[in-house]
Design goal:
The chain is elongated. It has 186 residues and is mainly alpha-helical. The protein has helices at residues 25-57, 66-92, 95-117, 121-124, 127-136, 142-149, 151-179, 182-185. Helix content is 74%, strand content 0%. The two termini are 42 Å apart. The longest helix has 33 residues, at 25-57. The chain is built from eight helices and no strands. This is ADP,ATP carrier protein.
Length: 186
Protein backbone atom coordinates (compact mmCIF):
# COMPACT_ATOMS: atom_id res chain seq x y z
CA UNK A 1 0.00 0.00 0.00
CA UNK A 2 1.13 3.45 -0.81
CA UNK A 3 0.81 6.13 1.80
CA UNK A 4 -0.08 9.64 0.68
CA UNK A 5 2.30 12.41 1.75
CA UNK A 6 0.31 15.20 3.38
CA UNK A 7 3.32 17.30 4.37
CA UNK A 8 3.20 21.02 3.69
CA UNK A 9 4.92 22.25 0.51
CA UNK A 10 7.27 24.44 2.58
CA UNK A 11 8.67 21.34 4.27
CA UNK A 12 9.78 19.92 0.94
CA UNK A 13 13.51 19.85 0.33
CA UNK A 14 15.04 22.35 -2.06
CA UNK A 15 14.83 21.29 -5.70
CA UNK A 16 17.85 19.46 -6.97
CA UNK A 17 19.13 19.79 -10.46
CA UNK A 18 20.22 22.45 -12.84
CA UNK A 19 18.61 25.44 -11.08
CA UNK A 20 19.38 24.42 -7.51
CA UNK A 21 22.09 27.08 -7.21
CA UNK A 22 19.61 29.92 -7.76
CA UNK A 23 18.28 31.74 -4.71
CA UNK A 24 14.55 31.57 -3.94
CA UNK A 25 12.26 33.51 -6.29
CA UNK A 26 11.51 36.25 -3.75
CA UNK A 27 15.24 37.06 -3.44
CA UNK A 28 15.89 37.02 -7.20
CA UNK A 29 13.86 40.21 -7.70
CA UNK A 30 16.65 42.16 -5.93
CA UNK A 31 19.63 39.92 -6.61
CA UNK A 32 19.43 39.93 -10.40
CA UNK A 33 19.10 43.74 -10.81
CA UNK A 34 21.88 44.33 -8.23
CA UNK A 35 24.05 41.81 -10.06
CA UNK A 36 23.39 43.54 -13.37
CA UNK A 37 24.18 46.97 -11.90
CA UNK A 38 27.42 45.60 -10.44
CA UNK A 39 28.35 43.97 -13.75
CA UNK A 40 27.82 47.24 -15.65
CA UNK A 41 29.83 49.22 -13.09
CA UNK A 42 32.72 46.73 -13.27
CA UNK A 43 32.56 46.59 -17.06
CA UNK A 44 32.97 50.38 -17.21
CA UNK A 45 35.71 50.23 -14.58
CA UNK A 46 37.72 47.74 -16.62
CA UNK A 47 37.54 49.89 -19.73
CA UNK A 48 38.37 53.07 -17.81
CA UNK A 49 41.26 51.48 -15.91
CA UNK A 50 42.88 50.26 -19.11
CA UNK A 51 42.31 53.49 -21.02
CA UNK A 52 43.44 56.09 -18.46
CA UNK A 53 47.10 55.04 -18.29
CA UNK A 54 47.51 54.62 -22.04
CA UNK A 55 45.89 57.96 -22.72
CA UNK A 56 48.21 59.84 -20.36
CA UNK A 57 51.45 58.00 -21.16
CA UNK A 58 51.09 58.30 -24.94
CA UNK A 59 49.94 61.94 -24.98
CA UNK A 60 52.13 64.58 -26.61
CA UNK A 61 54.92 65.74 -24.28
CA UNK A 62 53.97 63.17 -21.67
CA UNK A 63 55.29 59.83 -20.46
CA UNK A 64 55.25 57.37 -17.58
CA UNK A 65 56.80 59.96 -15.23
CA UNK A 66 53.46 61.77 -15.20
CA UNK A 67 51.58 58.99 -13.37
CA UNK A 68 53.11 59.53 -9.88
CA UNK A 69 52.46 63.27 -10.13
CA UNK A 70 48.87 62.65 -11.17
CA UNK A 71 48.26 60.24 -8.31
CA UNK A 72 49.85 62.50 -5.69
CA UNK A 73 49.10 66.07 -6.69
CA UNK A 74 45.85 65.70 -8.62
CA UNK A 75 44.10 62.49 -7.59
CA UNK A 76 44.69 62.79 -3.83
CA UNK A 77 43.24 66.33 -3.54
CA UNK A 78 40.34 65.29 -5.80
CA UNK A 79 39.58 62.32 -3.53
CA UNK A 80 39.64 64.53 -0.45
CA UNK A 81 37.36 67.04 -2.17
CA UNK A 82 35.01 64.27 -3.22
CA UNK A 83 34.82 62.97 0.34
CA UNK A 84 33.75 66.39 1.58
CA UNK A 85 31.18 66.72 -1.19
CA UNK A 86 29.89 63.18 -0.63
CA UNK A 87 29.33 63.77 3.07
CA UNK A 88 27.37 66.96 2.29
CA UNK A 89 25.26 65.11 -0.29
CA UNK A 90 24.53 62.33 2.21
CA UNK A 91 23.29 64.93 4.70
CA UNK A 92 20.86 66.42 2.15
CA UNK A 93 19.73 63.44 0.03
CA UNK A 94 18.63 59.83 0.39
CA UNK A 95 21.18 57.12 -0.41
CA UNK A 96 19.32 56.24 -3.62
CA UNK A 97 19.46 59.87 -4.81
CA UNK A 98 23.15 60.15 -3.87
CA UNK A 99 23.86 57.02 -5.92
CA UNK A 100 21.89 58.31 -8.90
CA UNK A 101 23.34 61.85 -8.74
CA UNK A 102 26.98 60.83 -8.49
CA UNK A 103 26.72 58.02 -11.05
CA UNK A 104 24.94 60.35 -13.50
CA UNK A 105 27.66 62.98 -12.95
CA UNK A 106 30.40 60.48 -13.78
CA UNK A 107 28.58 59.14 -16.84
CA UNK A 108 27.90 62.70 -18.05
CA UNK A 109 31.59 63.55 -17.76
CA UNK A 110 32.66 60.42 -19.67
CA UNK A 111 30.11 61.14 -22.41
CA UNK A 112 31.32 64.76 -22.59
CA UNK A 113 34.91 63.56 -22.77
CA UNK A 114 34.17 61.09 -25.58
CA UNK A 115 32.04 63.47 -27.61
CA UNK A 116 33.69 66.88 -27.02
CA UNK A 117 36.95 66.96 -25.07
CA UNK A 118 38.84 64.12 -26.77
CA UNK A 119 37.97 65.12 -30.34
CA UNK A 120 38.94 68.73 -29.57
CA UNK A 121 42.11 67.87 -27.63
CA UNK A 122 44.45 69.31 -30.28
CA UNK A 123 42.63 72.64 -29.99
CA UNK A 124 42.04 72.89 -26.23
CA UNK A 125 45.43 71.70 -24.99
CA UNK A 126 47.90 74.59 -24.48
CA UNK A 127 50.90 73.06 -26.32
CA UNK A 128 52.59 76.36 -27.25
CA UNK A 129 52.31 77.72 -23.70
CA UNK A 130 53.73 74.50 -22.25
CA UNK A 131 56.60 74.50 -24.76
CA UNK A 132 57.45 78.02 -23.57
CA UNK A 133 57.31 76.86 -19.92
CA UNK A 134 59.65 73.95 -20.68
CA UNK A 135 62.28 76.33 -22.03
CA UNK A 136 62.10 78.65 -19.01
CA UNK A 137 61.67 76.15 -16.12
CA UNK A 138 64.07 73.45 -14.87
CA UNK A 139 63.80 69.92 -16.31
CA UNK A 140 62.21 68.66 -13.06
CA UNK A 141 59.01 70.47 -14.01
CA UNK A 142 58.45 68.36 -17.13
CA UNK A 143 55.86 66.05 -15.50
CA UNK A 144 53.67 68.82 -14.03
CA UNK A 145 53.91 70.69 -17.33
CA UNK A 146 52.83 67.53 -19.16
CA UNK A 147 49.77 67.38 -16.87
CA UNK A 148 48.96 70.99 -17.73
CA UNK A 149 49.63 70.36 -21.42
CA UNK A 150 47.19 67.42 -21.49
CA UNK A 151 44.72 68.73 -18.92
CA UNK A 152 41.67 66.97 -20.37
CA UNK A 153 43.48 63.61 -20.33
CA UNK A 154 44.56 64.29 -16.74
CA UNK A 155 40.96 65.06 -15.84
CA UNK A 156 39.90 61.80 -17.49
CA UNK A 157 42.60 59.98 -15.52
CA UNK A 158 41.32 61.38 -12.22
CA UNK A 159 37.70 60.63 -13.03
CA UNK A 160 38.57 57.07 -14.05
CA UNK A 161 40.50 56.57 -10.80
CA UNK A 162 37.58 57.98 -8.83
CA UNK A 163 35.12 55.68 -10.64
CA UNK A 164 36.95 52.68 -9.21
CA UNK A 165 37.12 53.90 -5.66
CA UNK A 166 33.84 55.81 -5.53
CA UNK A 167 31.29 54.05 -7.69
CA UNK A 168 32.53 50.48 -7.29
CA UNK A 169 33.56 50.51 -3.65
CA UNK A 170 31.47 53.18 -1.99
CA UNK A 171 28.30 53.89 -3.94
CA UNK A 172 27.35 50.41 -5.08
CA UNK A 173 27.84 48.75 -1.71
CA UNK A 174 26.08 51.60 0.10
CA UNK A 175 23.17 51.23 -2.31
CA UNK A 176 23.14 47.44 -1.95
CA UNK A 177 23.12 47.71 1.84
CA UNK A 178 20.29 50.23 1.66
CA UNK A 179 17.99 48.06 -0.47
CA UNK A 180 18.84 44.71 1.13
CA UNK A 181 17.63 43.70 4.58
CA UNK A 182 19.77 41.75 7.03
CA UNK A 183 17.57 38.70 6.53
CA UNK A 184 18.01 38.87 2.76
CA UNK A 185 21.76 39.28 3.15
CA UNK A 186 21.98 35.94 4.96
Amino acid sequence: MTQLNTADATDAPAPKGLLSWLPPANERKKLLPLGMIFFCILFNYTILRDTKDVLMVTAKGSGAEVIPFLKTYVNLPAAIGFTVGYSKLCDKMSQKNVFNTITASFLTFFALFALVLYPASSVIHPHAFCDMLLTSLPAGFSAPIAILRNWSFALFYVMAEMWGSVVVSLLFWSFANQVTTVEEAK
